Amino acid sequence: MKFFVVTLFEEMFHAWAESGLVGQALKKQNFQMEFINPRSFTSDVHQAVDDKVYGGGDGMAAMFGPWSEAIEFAMQKEPSAQVIFLTPQGESWNQKKVSEFLQRKPSQEMGIRSFVFVCGRYAGFDERLVKAYADHEISIGDYVLNGGELAAMVVMESLVRGLPGVLGESSSFRKDSFGEEGLLECPQFTRPQSVKGMDVPSFLLSGHHKNIEALSRAISIVRTKNRRPELLEKAQISSKELEAAEKLIRQLSEEERDLLGVNS
Ligand code: ADE
Fold first, then answer.
1. What pLDDT does 112 receive?
2. What is the number of structural domains in the chain?
């Protein structure tokens, strides 16, 4: 997978791209990244990449010229690349979209699967840029950031995690919260067994794998119901299955249920 990033602030990406799993994946060439600065496509002394908006007021917007040339520069290198504009007005990004983007198979002649992330600054883009180039407009949430860079990192990291060979255990991508089934993950614990008066739930110490799996799933279901009821509706858990999960977690002590977030 290759990411072209059209941005005025390449330096924002450096620490992220060098750290943790993303850093390892980049080193192992699980994905590649190339930065393109619209300022390189200006010819005036000020290297202007934005201008006042028509219609009055003091707003500024990304100018068509340098941004379109930057996008086209990427497209010449990878004509099959999908162009993604990061904007608060875009479609909401979620784990389902991550899977869809990862599954989109390039055809034989398409070459490497590539994305061009266009990270605007200022009040936004000249709308004609979006019309001319965007395959997707994506928002990472209903709030406004100073630009698309952080949003691009969020989207890229969620995609990188799903690439083959990036996560150690191949099933952990599917088991993550919002994974295949759209449920929240069961809480996890590590040593010490007891801390600040809180004990690791005893079923996890039993060594009884079938039981651990069944209870973990029941906890996932009930925790999702308590925290994100709208996700449970989408997850297609039948009322019978929910009832069975609720019955199973009654095996746990009051303290355990409280710790696991499954008290009703
Ligand atoms: N640019 C500014 N705010 C954004 C958001 N919430 N999502 C994506 N891109 C953005």
1. 84
2. 2
> For residue 239, which amino acid is it?
S
Rounded to 5°, the CA angle 105-111-113 comes to 45
Q: What is the pLDDT of residues 171-214, one digit of tens each?
A: 678 778 887 789 999 999 999 999 999 999 999 999 999 999 99
Whether residue 204 is contained in a domain is answered as yes
- Whether residue 151 has its Cβ less than 6 Å from ligand 1: yes
Beta bridge partners of 198: 195
- Of 119, 139, 150, the one to substitute when testing ligand 1's pocket (max ligand atoms within 8 A of C-beta) is 139
Residue 196, amino acid = K
* Domain that residue 220 falls in: 176-258
Two tokens, residue 196: 């600040």
Ligand 1 pocket, mutate which of 7, 87, 118 (most atoms under 8 A from CB) = 87
pLDDT tens column, 229-249: 999 999 999 999 999 999 999
CB distance 86 to ligand 1 below 6 Å: yes
Tell me: the pLDDT tens digits for 32-89?
A: 999 999 999 999 999 999 999 999 878 899 999 999 999 999 999 999 999 999 999 9
Q: Which residue's CA lies nearest to atom 10 of ligand 1?
A: 87
In a domain, 264, yes or no: no
Nearest 5 degrees, angle CA 171-CA 98-CA 135?
Answer: 155
Q: Which of 9, 145, 156 to mutate to test the pocket of ligand 1 (most atoms within 8 A of CB)?
A: 145
